[in-house]
Each structure stands twice: as structure tokens, then as C-alpha cells.
């Protein structure tokens, strides 16, 4: 409601997704409507297998909606398709490309100037803290480092929308916390609009402006919670009373 | 500390083995030659059964000097390379189509498998009858023999492209051509080159089979000539030349692998 005056980046209207199978289809998403404001950090929270990832795949254009609409409003005023940066649970790097070449891939697909691509990739390598690994092969990276490369790759096009599908899901707890803090820093530096799927309540609260809670499959939105914790955020906020209240609220909604 | 020391002695040992590798190879070759010579002398074998190594070397220089070896070698080399090139091109294109379309695979795979059940040696006379005893029929035989392993490896390589990476490319709005260039070719390359390695040696076999059945030039023809004249030394010369040819082709594919599969090396 606060954002009502601002034109949303993304509007999802009565979206439903059904996957065809033998008996009438598997309904992954029942009926979802929400909109995302520019520069907003939105988390989607819900039990495993509830259709969160399906939502992201629809937004990334990988799965067509069965019903309803997804409306993008590109911020650059162009009528073209929005640029979407996608980070999966696995880093999904191309093993035959070096760190640098993995990051420049999206620009190569657009036939961008190679020198410009290299310059931007180097800036991002600095941003995600991988200096010195430009020419390493992906197999020589740890899980956390690989995920940083994936993040840099998603950021290089300066996407209108950054989609994160449990990006830290495959990392150990300590690396995960550290990467959360990094993501927060990067988001504050770059100020992209972010939609992140997670099943960690603490991660959602520490990172986002707003949390959508999904019901078990077929997914519906059962809670739309504004996170009014002050920014900049830091790990210690976990122990504040307000954090506890919000966490309890989310916990109850998940059921 | 103990473990580290053990590891280092292990490394040193490995390096020593590497250093003496060349000598080991030379030693084993000398032994083979020695056993060969001894066999001829002790068994009192006539030269048309088993010529001594020295005679083979002399025969080798003779055919090098009169230029006949080079003439036959260049014909066989041309057949092998043309066959390998055309065969692998055809197999790659058809492999791509088969990997993309299950329907096409179901339609064609019975024929492809059946074509492999018939030995090339059995088809070669037919091809010679139809296309004459020139180069063309030999190239066709090379294509036939090279085709299948490269086809299978292309299909396997393309099918093994990770679905996650396809999703990634789709999310970046990659077109079919970009999908091929940036994802499918590099992902399938290791398996494809494995097929090419097999194909390179098979192509040599194909050319020789063709020349055996009907030809007036080529190393296979040279083997036939040597056999007909009880010039067994000449047969040996032709065989060794074929072996070296196959080794060089194989080595070239290995070089390609070194060059393009840097990311796989340990």
C-alpha cells in the first residue's frame, strides 16, 4: 500500500500453473496475485515442494502460465522483454569456461563488445570478492565461490529482476550466513529488484522488505508480510524482540 | 610428517619412472627386435616365412628410394582422411538430428544397427562393383566404418548435456543456434572426440579393406603385391607403415583433446 503510487516492476495476476500428467494434471500453483515494487527485496517462503520454484521458473520464462498473467514493466522504458538474472540452488557454471568467461556469458549471447564485457565482469568479480580467481576453472572452486560466480553472472546484464531460487540451499550453515550478508551488501550496492525463494525464516527476515508465505501445493499466498526491521540489517538483529515477533508470525503462517 | 615424507618419496619415484620412460620404451623395442632375429636364426626360417629385421629395413629403404612407398602411402592417406572427414561430418549432422528427435531415432535406429551387423568386409566387394576400383569406393568404405562410432558418441554427448544448463541458457533467451554454439558443442565435445579417436583408427582399417578387395594403388594393395610375390619383407614394410599412420592420426586427435579439453585435465 505504501508503494501504491510507484509503478510496479512486476505484476502477477491470478496465476495458475498445472503440469500435464496422466490424470487431469498436477496443479502446482492455484491462484496467485501480487506485485513487486522497484528495488524491492521480496522473499517467497513455504514448505518444500509447494510450487515456489515453479513460480520463479514462470517469471524466468521457463514455464508458461496455465492461467493468469505475468506483466513486466521494464524500468529502462524499452518495450523489449525484461532482463532477468537467475540464480539456481546449484551454481550451474559451465565447466569448460573460466570464472571470467562464465560471468561474461550473458553478454556474449547479446553480442556485446568483448572489452566492455570483460570490464564489467572484472568489476563484478571485485564486488563478489573473487579477485585472483578470474582464470580458474569451476571445478577448482568451493560451493560458496561457485555460487558467487553464479551471482555475478546473473548481475552482469544489470537485470530488471533478479530471481534467486534457494541460492544458498546447497551451502553449509556458516557459508550460508556469510553469503546472506554478502548478498545484502551487493543488493545495497546495486539496488536491483530481487525475488528470492527460501525456506529459512531467518534468511527471509534478514534480507527482505516483504515476505510472501505460500501454502502447501497447490500454492496460494497465505500471508503477505512487510518486514519493518530497519536497514542496514545485520546478523545481530536476529536477537531483537521485533525479529522474534515477525519470525513467530511467519512460523504460524507456514503451519 | 611421516605421511608427507611418504608422499614426497612417491612423487620422486614417479618422476624417476617418467625420466626412464623413454629408455624403457627403447629397451622393450630392442628386446622385441632381438627375439625376432633370434627366432629367424634359431628356427632357420626362410625369408618368405619370416624375414629378419635387417631385411625389412633394407626393403623399407628400397621402396622409400624408388618412391613407391610414398606413392602408395599418399593414396591411402587421402582415402583415410577423406573418409574420416566426410564420415564424421555426416555422423555429426545425423547425430544432432537423432539427439533432437526421438521419432527420427525410432525410425532410423533399426537401419543403423542393421548396417553395423553386416561386416564392412562383406559390403566392400559390392561397393567396388558399383563404384569401380578407384579412390571413391575406398572413401565410401571408410565413411561406412567411421560413421557409426562417431554417430553414437555424438548422440550420447548431446543427450548428456545437463538440463540445468539448458534452463540457464533459456532464461538468458538463447536461440537454437546459440544453444548449439555455447552449450551443446562444448558439452558434447569430450565424448565426440572420444568417438573421433576410435574413428581415426577405424578409417585406416576401412581403406585397407577396400584396397584388399580391389585396387591398383595404396598400402593395402602393396600388402597384396608382397604376398603374391612371396616378398614378405614388403608385407612387413606396408604393415609397419599402416601402424605408424594410425598412430599419427590417433595422436592428432589426442592433441586436439589436449588443446580443447584443457578444463578436464588434472
Give me a quick take on this structure.
The complex is a heterodimer of chains A (255) and B (266). Chain A is of the alpha/beta class and 255 residues long. Chain A has 7 helices and 9 strands; from the N terminus they run βββαββαααβαβαββα.
What does this structure look like?
The complex is a heterodimer of chains A (255) and B (266). Chain A has 255 residues and is of the alpha/beta class. In chain A, β6, α5 (173-190) and β7 form a beta-alpha-beta unit. Helix content of chain A is 33%, strand content 24%. In chain A, α2 runs parallel beside α4 (143-155) and α3 crosses α4 (143-155). Chain A has a domain at 38-94 and 160-254: P-loop containing nucleotide triphosphate hydrolases (Rossmann fold). Chain B is mainly α and 266 residues long. Chain B folds into 2 domains: 1-44; 53-264, MetI-like (MetI-like fold). Chain B is 85% helix and 0% strand. Chain B is built from 10 helices and no strands. In chain B, α3 (68-100) packs antiparallel against α4 (102-117), α6 (135-159) packs antiparallel against α8 (176-213) and α8 runs antiparallel to α10. The longest helix of chain B has 42 residues, at 2-43. The two termini of chain B are 25 Å apart. The chains are: A alpha/beta (255), B mainly alpha (266).
Entry keywords:
heterodimer; A: 255 residues; alpha/beta; Rossmann fold; nine-stranded mixed beta sheet; 7 helices; B: mainly alpha; MetI-like fold
Give the secondary structure arrangement, pairings included.
The complex is a heterodimer of chains A (255) and B (266).
Chain A: E1 10-19, E2 26-36, E3 41-45, H1 52-59, E4 67-72, E5 84-87, H2 99-109, H3 114-127, H4 143-155, E6 161-165, H5 173-190, E7 193-198, H6 201-207, E8 210-214, E9 219-226, H7 241-254
Parallel strand pairs in A: 2-9, 3-7, 3-8, 5-6, 6-7
Antiparallel strand pairs in A: 1-2, 1-4, 8-9
Chain B: H1 2-43, H2 53-65, H3 68-100, H4 102-117, H5 120-131, H6 135-159, H7 163-171, H8 176-213, H9 219-228, H10 232-260
Helix pairs in contact in B: 2-10, 3-4, 3-6, 3-8, 3-9, 5-6, 5-8, 6-8, 8-9, 8-10, 9-10
